[in-house]
Amino acid sequence: MFAHAPGRLAENVMHFGRVLRHAGLAVGSDRVLVALEALTHAGLERREDFHAVLAACLLDRHEHAELFDQAFALFWRDPDLTGRMRALLLPRVETNTPPPVSENRRLADALFPGRPVSPPLPPADELELDARLTWSDRELLRKADFETMTADEFRRARQLMSSLRLAFEPLRTRRLEPARRPGRADWRATLHQMGRRGGDLAAPCWSRPRLQPAPLVLLADISGSMSRYSRMLLHFAHLLGQAPPRVESFVFGTRLTRTTRWLRHRDPDVAVSRVTRAVRDWSGGTRIAECLREFNRRWARRVLPGGATVLLVTDGLEHGGREELAFEMERLRKSCRRLLWLNPLLRYAGFEPRAGGMRAMLPHVDALLPVHNLESLEQLVAVLGGREVQPPAPAAR
After folding, report:
1. In the beta sheet, which residues pair with residue 251?
2. pLDDT number for residue 394
3. With helix as H, strand as E and coil as C, how does 120-189 read?
4. 143, 336, 344, 353: least buried by Cβ within 10 Å?
């Protein structure tokens, strides 16, 4: 059946491999040749077999399967879905506009290079640093507000965010590790060295407390006024998840949802899209006190080990009672080492926490920091690395 249109199937498979490579998968020419050889034995009678052969030959990681399935569905579109896969032998058909992609816009860029993508900002992206960004462009992006960014500016901002140099404050633990300099004597290691020398006196061994980065817990508000900032913070949480410290993440609006498991995926596109699909109250209302109460009662002892730092991302616009919110904030502060409040409203020069919910939260936080642009994220990284910050001033009565 390959003799009816020589070379066209190979051309399509080669172009499909190029699309996967541009989308971030490691697909070389050797795998394309293996796929063509396997197709000569498997045939093109069933779409499922064709998909299975390409997946077996072109994939090497299980986590790329979801991205591969999307690319396969978009690229190998058959105008007659009930027909046989012989239609794949036809030349590739160009279209004027790319089809909607539900999760990963890298596929749209790979399938339709050079064409503008007009849909609104997607929930997930993976972008590489664009070398064409000049110094002035980067400086403007560092100071631009996330809420006022266009889709293209948002993607470029995420490029720069991925290049942040993360640093985490080291904490002393009760566990010990070998040390070269004199300090605390390690008698067990010293006796072990003497035993290896037949009982002769050996130089004493020393130990010191082991250092580990402080664990992090992210509580992000996803109400209507915070959704754009929280989306960027989810990408930031995914970036933190690739670093040494233990990171737990939660989002809350009218309910609390744990997102740690979804953000562990290596691909940030798939990770954040899973969060946005699973969370039911995205861009809805907010109940800060009620969600904090659920976290304190259900999750605090599970995910707040000793020395943990909590990042609370919210604008503090709570419509409930101040007493209940103050009680839950005090309880949360006593469960962690540091409680940092990240508020995008600090982008305003004359901002003052006058709302009732803000005044109830302010006395229980160690620092009140902005989180509305890349520059503020750089400041947050410095604080996580151990930089001292001034405690927030008490709110005016």
Report:
1. 220, 257
2. 62
3. CCCCCCCCCCCCCCCHHHHHHHHHCCHHHCCHHHHHHHHHHHHCCCCCCCEEEEEEEEEECCCCEECHHH
4. 143
| 360 CB-side CA count, 13 A | 21
Report the alpha-carbon distance of residue 107 to residue 115 in Å, rounded.
12
C-alpha closest to that of 124 among 292, 310, 278: 278
CATH pick for 214-384 out of 3.40.50.880, 2.60.40.420, 3.40.50.410, 3.90.226.10 = 3.40.50.410
Q: Please, what sign has the CA dihedral across residues 61, 65, 70, 76?
A: positive
Q: What type of residue is 201?
A: L
Per domain, the residue ranges of the chain are: 2-111, 170-212, 214-384
Q: Return the number of other C-beta atoms located less than 10 Å from residue 72's C-beta.
A: 19
Nearest to 39 by CA among 27, 57, 16: 57
What's the pTM value of the predicted model, to 2 decimals? Answer: 0.64
The alpha carbon dihedral of 56, 60, 66, 72 has a sign of negative
Using CA atoms in the order 34, 36, 37, 40, what is the torsion angle rounded to 10 degrees? 150
Least confident of 101-110, 113-122, 280-289: 113-122
- Helix, strand, or coil (residue 382): helix
Query: pLDDT-based confidence at 215, cuts 50/70/90?
Result: confident
In the prediction, which pLDDT does 114 show?
56
Q: Which tokens go with 358? A: 């803000």
